[in-house]
Each structure stands twice: as C-alpha cells, then as structure tokens.
Amino acid sequence: MGVLAGSQLSKKGCDLGNINKLLGKPIHDPPFKNEASVMAKFKLNVSNADTKKVTVHELDGPKAQPLVGREIGEIVDGSLIGMDKVKLQVTGGSDKDGIPMRSDVHGGAKKYALLSSGVGFNPTTQGERRRKLVRGRMITDQTYQINMRVIKEDQVKPAKKGGA
After folding, report:
1. Distance CA 145, CA 44 (A)
2. Hey, CA dihedral for 132, 97, 71, 55, is it positive or negative?
3. Residue 62 and residue 40: Cα distance in Å, rounded?
4. Which of 39, 100, 130, 162 is deepest in the core (most CB within 10 A)?
5. Beta carbons within 8 Å of 128's beta carbon, 6+ residues apart
6. Between the CA of residue 147 and those of 9, 93, 133, what are the distances in Å?
7. Which neighbouring-strand residues pair with 30?
8. pLDDT digits 0-9 by tens, 85-101
9. Cα–Cα distance for residue pair 103/119, rounded to 1 Å
10. What residue ranges of the chain have pLDDT lower than 50?
11. Cα separation values, 93 from 11, 19, 102, 160, Å
12. What is the 3-state secondary structure (H, E, C) of the chain?
C-alpha cells in the first residue's frame, strides 16, 4: 500500500484499530514471517593448549542460542558442543564480513574505534593511530566465527559471593 495521508487519518480517527484497518495488517507484525526462524549460526574454533590442536564445530538453530548474549572472557560449558567435563572460554570472534570483535568495545554492534594496537589494527609506524571498524565484545546473531579455548576445571575461578 502507500503512505497514509493526514486526511485519511483524520477522517477515520487516529486510534490503533483504525490504523490497522487502513494498513490491512497489525502494526506490531514482526519484520520477518516468523521471527523465531531467524536463528544464529556459528563456526566455533576451539583450541586446546594440552594437545596443541584446534577443532572446528558448527552450531546453528536452537543449539546456538545459549551463546547469544555472552561476552569475550566468559566461561561456558563444553557440553554445548559435545565436549563433556570441559569448560570453554570465549576469546574472540568475527562476523560474516570479517570484522573482528574487541574486548574493550561494549555491546555487539559495529563501531568505529580509534585504535593504536591490538585486534583489528596493525600500525605501520610507531605511534600511529587510526579509526577502524570493529565489533563489540558481545556475541550476537550477526557473529559468524567464535574463538574459544579449553580451560581445565581447576583454572575456573569461583564467583565471589556478596558480603563483608
């Protein structure tokens, strides 16, 4: 349909029911046919320091959902990818365009950050700084590759309990 003119709104009234009738569909319809079908798909690179090998796993659909919202540095259970009795630490990742995740950028969106070194920038001269496009530290459904490392059970630090 087209854009509603002001006269159409004033003739019919401006309540939500009349707007829905004019548009022919409810306003709150999701942008996709089925929002639940828009699921994340991840390629996990899991490195093991003991064996000095990297294994690649792919997760998609409901199996990938527990990783969405996690951040770089968080520890997740290895049973997500079939590695029981193991904990995995998220160390980084990138999206489908190859834009890297940085642990010092909040959120999961793309942002231009002023970088002097580290992930996403290799300076050619000493003291060089440049504004580069990077992703935040949170895993979103736009993230494609996630890098993880296996940590031993005794390396997991227990969470501090509140108190004096």
Report:
1. 6
2. negative
3. 8
4. 100
5. 116
6. 52, 5, 19
7. none
8. 899 999 999 999 999 99
9. 9
10. 1-2, 4, 7-9, 11-12, 27, 29-37, 164
11. 54, 44, 8, 28
12. CCCCCHHHHHHHCCCHHHHHHHHCCCCCCCCCCCHHHCCCEEEEEEEECCCCEEEEEEEEHHHCHHHCCCECCCEEEHHHHCCCCCEEEEEEEEECCCCEECCCCCCCCEEEEEECCCCCCCCCCCCCCEEEEEECCECCCCEEEEEEEEECHHHCCCCCCCCC
Instruction: Tell me the torsion sign for CA atoms 53, 157, 77, 99.
Output: negative
CB-based contact 143:87 (threshold 8 Å): no
Are 71 and 138 in contact by the 8 Å Cβ rule? The answer is: yes
Choose among 84, 85, 80: nearest CA to 70: 80
pLDDT at 54: 94
Cα 64 to Cα 86: distance, rounded to the nearest angstrom: 18
> Tokens for 52?
């000095």
DSSP single-letter state for residue 134: E
